[in-house]
Design goal:
Blueprint lengths: L1 H26 L3 H14 L5 E8 L2 E8 L4 H8 L18 E4 L2 E4 L12 E3 L12 H8 L9 H14 L5 H7 L10 H12 L1
Parallel strand pairs: 1-5
Antiparallel strand pairs: 1-2, 3-4, 3-5
Helix pairs in contact: 4-7, 5-7
Bound molecules: FE2/S2 (inorganic) cluster (2 copies).
């Protein structure tokens, strides 16, 4: 018992010594360097600024005031309640947030909303024609292209673009051009079959 107490004492003493030398080192940073870091911080961390923007989403115009730093994904989900586009990684790595901008698949988590002004944005909510599902949505249903469904809207948006781009020559080609869309349930076979069905 006594032994572990003295161990703890010596550990906290070592920690104290390390921390204080780190703090002491900081105090020796010259003022010019501190000013430089301050400058970089201010340039990197853009301050919040509310701005008015107009967006055209699923053929409907929207006027709203947003933080100039907001991503299209956050504006869709949080400002406009268009929650079909999902936030998976928020870092451009899973494809769950895929939308079309001017007909091209785009990761909305990596797109600033202000940059999407004047462009035609299509989300999964705008893919169906009224009550008629888009052929790709039908094909996903028929081929078991989803399980939990979390990745599905992004997969469908990419799948539609994959067909439009003509990247459906073989299963390998489809897999390559769909590789930016990850599915944690592993519904890849159904997704590939759905794309083959629509591309025929
Ligand atoms: S949420 Fe955009 S790529 Fe993952
Ligand atoms: S169906 Fe569950 S993550 Fe793809």
């Amino acid at each position: 018992m006594k032994h572990s107490h003295s161990n703890a004492m010596s550990m906290s003493r070592r920690f104290f010594l390390k921390s204080s030398s780190a703090l002491a080192a900081l105090s020796f940073i010259p003022n010019s360097l501190k000013a430089f870091y301050q400058d970089v911080r201010e340039k990197l961390f853009v301050k919040k600024q509310m701005i008015p923007i107009q967006l055209e989403i699923n053929k409907k115009p929207y006027s709203l005031t947003i933080d100039s730093r907001a991503t299209l994904l956050d504006v869709l989900r949080e400002e406009l309640n268009l929650t079909g586009s999902k936030k998976g990684c928020d870092h451009g790595q899973c494809g769950a947030c895929t939308v079309h901008i001017n007909g091209e698949r785009t990761l909305s988590c990596l797109t600033l909303a202000v940059m999407a002004q004047g462009k035609a944005i299509t989300t999964i909510e705008g893919l169906a024609d009224g009550d008629n599902l888009h052929p790709m949505q039908e094909a996903f249903l028929e081929n078991d292209g989803f399980q939990c469904g979390y990745c599905t809207s992004g997969q469908i948006m990419s799948a539609v673009a994959c067909v439009d781009e003509g990247h459906t020559g073989s299963v390998e080609e489809i897999k390559e051009y769909m590789s930016g869309n990850l599915c944690r349930c592993g519904a890849y076979n159904g997704i590939t079959k759905a794309i083959q069905q629509v591309s025929k």
